UniProtKB/TrEMBL annotation:
GO molecular function terms listed in the Swiss-Prot or TrEMBL record: metal ion binding; nucleotide binding; nucleotidyltransferase activity; tRNA binding
Pfam families attached to this UniProt entry: HD, PolyA_pol, PolyA_pol_RNAbd
Keyword annotations: Coiled coil, Magnesium, Metal-binding, Nucleotide-binding, Nucleotidyltransferase, Transferase, tRNA processing
Any one biological process term the GO annotation gives: tRNA processing
Name of the protein: Poly(A) polymerase
Length: 507
């Protein structure tokens, strides 16, 4: 972050807040009329100095929760209880969302995941308990008086993360603040004050008392930031990654003496950066568009090689292999993401991408049949756009000729995919007979056998493309003759039509 003087930052903040200043002043006057202090605080103040948009407005006040409700009633269109026990009441006025919290001075019980909340009675005490100095700045309302007791503006100008209190006290109060520090490195391009980094390294184990859901949310925000590599490097350097994502530092494999394989940790971070560069602009449309920032793509890029440590083998002659590391990696990714309480769709998508990320390397210079291309498309399904970007980003070779050859080869694969899609509507590929039609042709009821028949016709469709209904029926009957259930011994009554079976039963 470039250094800017405090007066310039202050002028920038005032200009940035100009559209909402009348609202801030009006709300401040309502609280003052009721005998309460009010200040805009935290992220919205910081973001104003950085000319960034802040989705919500956060306030702190001397009023207690029930008094906050009284003041907001009639001023906001909707009112809700964000966390009364924590002193926070939320409201919406038009498109504006506000959250107002009673002055606080809380601390974590060393053995508890939940904070012990104590309401405070002044702004100064409230600011000292905040996570970082850049978030401990406030605008007193309605007078719009800037308050910065911990030199947060100077730290903001320098792009440095310090804590208002000692780092040890701050991180003991809320260990998640250590993850938040790494997140701010990613989001805002900040660097850690040496004392902060030292405390994080010494106290990384405190993160174990924080719930997996809260840790997950901070990790996701870090990955979606502008500089996720920097945030991840902070996590690895301080030991936070050992508690949250141990598979990442485990990629720092010891190189063999002849350096015959690449640094997998460095490679994974480069792949992440290259995948981000390939993301499409926000709002991009199209069958394979991946508008950024995309959490699934970024997780898959980061985790795609985590199976390598478990599968590394030193081969005769000095070579190194990682056979089936994509399969092992998919299992490891699934386990880690579940432990972090990611939702099922995210776990499934990331796991599938890790599993498929090597598939393209069998393509060579275009030797795949149309059948193999169809399977590539259908196996990826709705993840095809992300798989395109993951596969391309996985090339980190310094050999320019090799990189250009791989890029040309993948260009050719994408062209074939587009051509087959146009010809065959592969996004909606189905067998040429549906389940009811298969049951009628074979005279079988719904069940596992019908499922197998359906899968066979789907495989035929992928291998041969559209063959027409008559040829599909012929292939189905040929397949059926080879199945044990086609005889009376295998499945009584199978092989005859439902009407025939009804007649056999005396109809």
């Amino acid at each position: 972050m470039s250094t800017t003087s405090s007066p310039e930052l202050l002028a920038r903040a005032v200009r940035h807040l100009a559209p909402v200043l009348p609202v801030l002043t009006e709300l401040g006057e309502r609280f003052a009329a009721a005998g309460h202090e009010l200040a805009l605080v935290g992220g919205p103040v910081r973001d104003a100095f950085l000319s960034r948009q802040s989705p919500d407005l956060d306030f702190t006040t001397s009023a207690r929760p029930e008094q906050i409700e009284q003041v907001l009633t009639g001023w906001v269109d909707h009112l809700w209880d964000v966390g009364r026990d924590f002193g926070t009441i939320g409201g919406r006025r038009g498109d504006l969302v506000v959250e107002v919290t009673t002055f606080r001075a809380d601390a974590y019980d060393p053995e508890s995941r939940k904070p012990v909340v104590a309401f405070g009675d002044n702004l100064t005490d409230d600011l000292v308990r905040r996570d970082f100095t850049v978030n401990a700045m406030a605008l007193r309302l309605p007078q719009v008086e800037f308050t910065d007791p911990h030199d947060g503006l100077a730290d903001l100008a320098e792009g440095v993360l310090r804590t208002p209190h000692t780092p040890e006290i701050s991180f003991s109060d809320d260990p998640l603040r250590m993850m938040r520090a790494a997140r701010f490195v990613s989001q805002l391009g900040f660097v850690l004050d040496p004392a902060v980094q030292t405390a994080m390294t010494e106290m990384a184990g405190r993160l174990d008392i924080v719930s997996a859901e809260r840790v997950r949310d901070e990790l996701s925000r870090l990955l979606l930031g502008a500089h996720p590599r920097a945030g991840l490097e902070v996590m690895v350097a301080t030991g936070l990654a050992d508690r949250v994502l141990p598979e990442l530092p485990a990629l720092k494999l010891e190189l063999d003496e002849h350096h015959r394989h690449k640094d997998v940790y460095e490679h994974s971070l480069i792949v992440l950066e290259q995948a981000i560069d390939l993301e499409d602009p926000p709002g991009a449309d199209g069958p394979d568009a991946v508008p950024g920032p995309d959490l699934v793509l970024r997780l898959a890029a980061l985790l795609h090689d985590i199976g390598k440590p478990a599968t590394r083998r030193f081969e005769p002659g000095g070579g190194v292999s990682f056979h089936h590391h994509e399969v092992v990696g998919a299992k490891l990714a699934r386990a880690r993401l579940r432990a972090l309480r990611y939702d099922k769709d995210t776990v499934k998508a990331v796991t599938r991408l890790v599993e498929l990320h090597l598939r393209f390397h069998g393509y060579g210079t275009g030797e795949w049949t149309d059948s193999a291309v169809r399977r590539y498309i259908t196996d990826a399904g709705p993840l095809l756009g992300r798989l395109h970007k993951l596969t391309r980003s996985d090339c980190t070779t310094r050999n320019r000729r090799k990189a250009e050859r791989l890029a040309r080869s993948y260009d050719g694969l994408e062209e074939r995919i587009d051509r087959l899609r146009e010809q065959e509507e592969l996004a909606a590929v189905r067998p040429e007979l549906n389940g009811n039609e298969i049951a009628e042709v074979l005279g079988i009821p719904p069940g596992p056998v019908l499922g197998r028949a359906y899968k066979h016709l789907l495989a035929v469709r992928l291998d041969q493309g559209p063959i027409g209904r008559e040829a599909a029926e012929s292939e189905l009957r040929r397949w059926w003759e080879e199945q044990p259930e086609s005889t009376d011994d295998g499945m009584p009554g199978a092989g005859s039509r439902p009407a025939d079976r009804a007649g056999d039963n005396g109809a």
